[in-house]
Amino acid sequence: GSSSIPNFFCIMKRQFTETEWGVIKSMSNEWMQLDMFHRHWALKESFLKAIGVGIGFNLQRIEFNVSPLQLEIGKVYKETKMLLDGDKEEEWTFEETRLDDHHHVAVALGKQEGFGQNYSDVYSMEPNQPQFTLLTFEDLVASGIPVAPEDSAYWDNFCSKQESPVKQNSHS
To answer: Among 74, 78, 63, which residue's Cα sits nearest to residue 99?
Structure first.
């Protein structure tokens, strides 16, 4: 929703450490900077989801040292390291991949207390086995079961609505 990448970065700057911004801004053009921004954001989100907290968490407490700088599409990397409150976190591993030129995926694997499974069990998978699968909408809903009978009038009413909100005239 920002008018430019620099304006967007100005708004989002407080979510990253100076070191992270140094890496983001070191990219050779704005689009590559935005790409590196999204990579860092995916990493931060993966950690927050893994520990079960929301975005109220101070994101400057976590810092990612991304490695390598460029990710090959479809290849899974585990080299990125995280610091929490300035200390390197050895118990956390971050798996990253690029799905395509515009999408990063990051998964945080850490100490899973109380879940009955040690996270190291994840590494028993075959080393060359694909670890991410791209699913279509049809894949996701194939086993879905409707919770209510189909109501064609409801669907017709839904389809008749405008796609976007209409600005209200403040003078009327």
So the answer is: 74
